[in-house]
Amino acid sequence: MGRVVTAVVIAAAAALWIAPSANAKKVPECAGPVSIKKISDSEKKLRSVIVGGGGRMYVSGRASEDDRMARLWRIDRPGAEWVLLASGAGGPGGLAWKGRKLLWGVGSYDPYGIYGGPRPREADILEVDPSNGKHSVLAHRVGSANGVATLPDGSILASNSFLNSSNINRVSPRGWVERPWAEISTPSGMVIGKYGEYMYVTSHYSLPPKISTVELDNPENTTSWYQPSDEERKFSYFSGITRDGENNFFVGAIGGVWKVRPGKKACVFEISDTLGGVSFGRGAKGFQGRYLFAVGQGGGLYRISGASRAIVG
What we know:
- This protein has one helix at 2-15; strands spanning 35-40, 45-51, 57-62, 69-75, 83-89, 91-98, 101-108, 124-128, 135-139, 148-150, 156-159, 167-171, 177-183, 187-192, 198-203, 210-215, 218-226, 241-243, 249-260, 266-280, 291-296, 301-305.
- Strands 1-22-21-20-19-18 form a six-stranded antiparallel beta sheet, with no helix packed on it. It has a four-stranded antiparallel beta sheet with strand order 2-3-4-5, with no helix packed on it.
- The radius of gyration is 18 Å and the shape is globular.
- The chain has one domain: 6 Propeller (Neuraminidase), CATH 2.120.10.
- It is built from one helix and 22 strands.
- By secondary structure, the chain is mainly β.
- Mean pLDDT is 89; it is low at 1-23 and 111-117.
């Protein structure tokens, strides 16, 4: 039933699409010294990924298509066993670091059946000890929590990508939930830009796909920052987002990972999967900092070499 409704939603969104002009610029495949490798494959439905100290990776998702529990795994190095750290009822959400603790959005039911069930239910944010999986609820009912991010003042942001939503909620350092902190259409992934002035936010159900900015000191100031006109890639459905030290942005999407440069030129690392979270590695051990990693609903864990150096057309 969920898949049928999802198809209807996508069809309705497509009806609102206005075809670009004949001279619309194509978004090319990324070029240069780039390689893509699937380093793990399974029946898991993977949603988010983040790398921490020692190059250890943490992945949220579901164990299979029929699994109705959110799962959080730790992988100590490429090829190592996936260690189940924690589980929770509902859909898996975003991941972020709060000091040495891991923040995990968990418990939402997507109303269109994409992440575990037909009924909308707002997620909680859990604070997880990455060494043993012990966790506690940090905040209740924060939206879908598809994306989770932390701000310099210690507050936490949770995006709400339900189709009829446009809010990013803020959890204060004292635990109060501000609804909304900012308004972006179906927000999903979030990352603070290099200079600390703006949060860059993907819109999951936008056609064509879109990245917006939110001014951190004035969250009412939101701007559509990047939106391609390539008709062939209009159903990309942007999800997780990260960046490198040069303020190049990398976005998980249907069909690959997008690279968007500060000058708003883009290319795609093409991958046959519906990609969610993206994360650079860390350090020289385990999942190393020189690689970009992505996870997919098809169960793949992908390693991209040369992502920051890739040539954008």
